Amino acid sequence: MPVPQDRPTTRLLSTILTAFFLLSVPAGTAFAGTGMTQLLVKTKVPLTPDVVAAIAEQSVKVSFVWPEIRSMAIVASPSKVSALAANPLVEFVEADLQAGVTGDPPNAHGQPSPTMTTVPLSSSILTWNQDMANTQGSTETGDGVTVAVVDAGLPQNWEEFLPANSVDVEHAAGFGAEGNGDFHANLHAIRGVGGHIGLFPHGLAVSSIIVGFPSEFGPVLGAAPGAHILPIRVLNQFNFGWFSWFTAGIMHVANLKASGTIPGPMVINFSIQAQGSSQVLAAAINYAISQGVLFVTIAGNFNPFDTVSFPGRLPQCITAGAVGWKSEGLPPAPWFFGDVPENDATQAYVAFFSGREPGSVPAGSMIDVVAPGSYVFGEWLFGPGFSEGREVAFDAVDNFIFGTSFAAPHVAGIVARMLEKNPGLTQSEAETALRSTALPMPNSPTSFVTPLGEFVLPWDERATGAGLVQGMEAVAATPHALMYGSGNRTGSNGGTSSSAAGLPWVRVVTRTGSFPVEFALGGFSGRPCTMALYDVHGRLIRRWTSASARTVWDGSRGDGLPAASGVYFVHAQGEGLQGSAKFVVAR
Length: 587
Fold this sequence. Notes:
Oligomer: single chain
CATH topology of the largest domain: Rossmann fold
């Protein structure tokens, strides 16, 4: 039915998009049909110019050099691989794998298109997916926080599809080749320039969930409307990239933070998945986290054929699976702006494609939380949108989008709000707050079909992590920023303490590896403190209460077993005062 032109209303595009799958290409894939192979190399020694030159002699091309993680990306003849691996300067050589995005055609599952619906324009529309993730309600909006979307970049006319002043183009970048894409119209065809401008709409869709977008119904709220998007393009016009491109993008973001070029807090949203793995890419993620950049990624869309994807299966990542709403498609219309009942995880179902953890690992050890990723209402541009803009793309913009790719930005937006509250928040602290405030999801032993015809497979705790993410609660659980002064000290156990004069602080006073571990507490004015000990993955190891200026941990976990070697964090909190320290256990 036609929509009256004299009313501030409009219609929803009737196209529905299905989940995306990123596929790994086996090692040894030829480079551009030349018979050459793309490789990642890590050295045993610092990457000085002489070391780079020595490795370059065994390659055809040096694509990237990352001295911070002693790694390089090169192109070489397959006949040189063995010699490279045997080079005394080289620690290891691994294949630079490829990952790409493909999608099923619209309505592939036969779902009915959404009917044209009349709704009043609003200054702040809350979608079902933001409501289910409980992203709204805190005073924090992500203001001052940069969310680096390491993805497919943004279209050249992104300003028509995202809120004004929401994108940082000054520090944006692109890695890997770009050219004429197949998602543009012929009238004003886009020529990719190799920078952050891309020809695939995946990065725009992710960004729209984080900061919101000007939909045909009016402005739609994002998970962190005050944040800034930093587009980092690592996928090309054919919707794939290489591990070296992903590494380059992550290293670029980490070094923006490390150099102080972007002084504020940062979080990376990495909605890319692969079945293969890479030690070099993992090292880049670790480097970013070590520089204070938080990292959110996805459980992947490989179910039921494979388990949690890479890098989502790495324990240091904040990893999100995907859920939908069991009431999707039900009245009143439009259902996608409907109110999701609060504190009720039974409203959600686990999307059939969302990655599950393998039986070989403890449940909940890979997936942290789940968030909306099925029938998410967001921006997705088909061909005309890239060239002619919103008016021509009227029926090719606002869409239902599917995939764990779109669960992660809900979580990244929540993390941005947490970082506004506490710019010094660490990866493990953020992970702990998200997990501890999530709503546990009950198992579902049987399959069923949603009102819109979405087939749902059975699921258990290996699909849900700690449960359904709850943004407002996670922000509330985020500790306020500690004030660090020039008096900061490093304890002899390798721990950094917050011992600025007059402020609460914790310091490790015993030597590295010794047991018991003794902590000195200051600034708490003799008040009792709750001591909480976490491992590097944010898992609670032990909790106790101390009422003195010194307290001791005997090295055991809450279950009485000895804690493993590794990095740990101790937090002391009492009557609104808190301090923390990081230390190492070496048995």
